[in-house]
Task: structure prediction
Amino acid sequence: MLCHIDSMRLCFFTFTLFLFLLNGELFAYIKLWTIPIGSGESQEIGIELDHYYSCINYTIALTEQSIPKLNIQNESELYLHMLTNFIFPRYALFEASIYPLPIAGVYIKKEAHNFYQDAELTRGINIVRAVTDGFQEPYAASLFLGNVANFVKGTGSDVTGRGFSGFALNFGDRHIVDNIMVHDKWFETELKIKGTDYHEIHNMEWSYSMGIKLHGNEEINDQFFISVYRNRIDYTGIGADSLLGFFVRNTEQQLRIDFALRRFDIRKPSSFSFLVGKNFPIGDGAVTLAFRVGALKIFSGGYSGELEQDIDRKWALIVRPMAYFRLGSSE
Result:
């Protein structure tokens, strides 16, 4: 019995180390591919790999305008460009996405339940859940209508990032909550601004959205949601800014609030999660250590029936140490 416990704990720490290394952005310069189709640059295929969110998409211009290539280094200018080009859609994007770590969390809880329980360090702190909790589904299909921009470095043509702003329709047939996956034909509409920019002076990822999610599973109530995600790593000028810069540079913020549409009350969310973090580049930024801490709470109103009885509604602490590795040259 002692041997069994020791082997389980060895597996647990091996799993924790694996996820720690997996969370390192080993794809800092190669995780994003864009493949132009034809000579007019009005169509392209995009591929993005990530431990939480991986996808393949196809973009086509709805007008004769090709997908623009922009060299923007200021974060506020990125947002301004996407907002000012929000209203009139010029591109359509079809995307299939999959979320590896949320799937891993479901698998571990279902197929290795003893191991999952052993990963609970104390009440409300489960390492597997803390690392794998994220998306509310294992995969999705999406149609995006809006505007797209490719970000480039200097005067070159190599794409280092992409930005999107517009209206998205998403759908799927599974739902994840508390590392439990159930059948659910869901449909989501949202207004969204999102993008990535892997620049020589910084890495940035952002996504700001709000929308409505409708569920086919009777035990999951329809939701209105607001979601914020921003992560930035700076490789130059570190420590040169004011106190405000400390909270802007090398930081991460995540926030999601859901409200049940049935008996909607802005004062009573059905779920709430947040995560804040600080990035610490070492030397020239080849390695960046990061630490995130946050919490997740599922309130009443989001679920009903047997599913409501199965999920853990206590506050769950989320702690995520991470390491980012920047590959390639910055020249």
Notes: The mean pLDDT is 82. The chain has seven helices and 16 strands.
